[in-house]
TrEMBL record:
Residue stretches making up the Response regulatory domain: 3-119
Modified residues (4-aspartylphosphate): 54
Limits of the HTH luxR-type domain: 149-214
Organism taxonomic ancestry: Bacteria, Bacillati, Actinomycetota, Actinomycetes, Kitasatosporales
Alphabetical list of Gene3D superfamilies matching this protein: 3.40.50.2300
Record keyword Transcription present: yes
Keyword hit for Zinc: no
Name the UniProt record assigns to this protein: Response regulator transcription factor
Membrane-crossing residue ranges in chain numbering: none
UniProt keyword list: DNA-binding, Phosphoprotein, Transcription, Transcription regulation
InterPro entries from the UniProt entry: CheY-like_superfamily, NreC/VraR/RcsB-like_REC, Sig_transdc_resp-reg_C-effctor, Sig_transdc_resp-reg_receiver, Tscrpt_reg_LuxR_C, WalR-like
Length: 217
């Protein structure tokens, strides 16, 4: 069972997410938190696999809580709950180690898929928000930032760059493998090698680096 902690300051949103997730046979919502401080305390006590974390909350906001969770329970995966109006916060969360993000109005199947992906060690970038965030990031890029990203990518082989470009599109290992006729296990090996070479903590950071460098665009 995937043990989940739902964090949002609105009780109705927490209740809705709980109802959706507990309808799945492999997901169990073991706790709920109304702010970031409660989320950190409960994540430590309940040994959860995935934390769903809102950004705008009282007492302790989601970004502060994310930093605390990464420091105190690094094996716990954190998914950011967001709206279209919080792009810059989302970008910061991704670069600081979250496992991805999804919109609060996502379909039930997408919510469950995101939790499963995070629990499996993959990143999840909501299709409904990825393009919006990427466009926001691209519009604020500078030549210096692009050059820095491209210099970091110089250590990669052509095949690794090809795989990284697919990460930049938000593809899973399985989808990337299908695109370039490679097994999912082989793609996973390439991803691990890429993260190690680039010094990225997870595939989301690598994907953002690929976008910074203009890879695949």
């Amino acid at each position: 069972m995937i043990r989940v902690l739902v964090t949002d300051d609105e009780p109705l949103i927490r209740a809705g997410i709980r109802m959706i997730l507990t309808s799945a046979d492999d997901i169990d919502v073991v706790a709920e938190a109304a702010n970031g401080r409660e989320a950190v305390e409960l994540a430590r006590a309940q040994r959860v696999d995935v934390v769903l974390l809102d950004i705008q909350m009282p007492v302790m906001d989601g970004l502060t809580a994310l930093a605390e969770l990464r420091r105190t329970v690094p094996d716990t995966r954190v998914l950011i709950l967001t709206t279209f109006g919080e792009q810059q916060n989302v970008l910061r969360a991704l670069t600081e180690g979250s496992a991805g993000f999804l919109l609060k109005d996502s379909a039930p199947a997408e919510l469950m898929g995101a939790v499963r992906a995070a629990a499996a060690g993959d990143a999840y970038l909501s299709p409904g928000a990825t393009r919006h965030v990427v466009d926001s990031l691209a519009s604020g890029q500078t030549t210096r930032r692009t050059e820095q990203a491209r210099r970091r990518l110089e250590t990669l082989t052509d095949r690794e760059l090809e795989v990284l470009a697919l990460l930049g599109e938000g593809l899973s290992n399985a989808d990337a493998g299908a695109r370039i006729h490679m097994s999912e296990a082989t793609v996973k090996t390439y991803v691990s090698r890429i993260l190690s070479k680039l010094g990225c903590e997870n595939r989301v950071q690598a994907a953002l680096l690929a976008r910074d460098a203009g890879l695949g665009t």
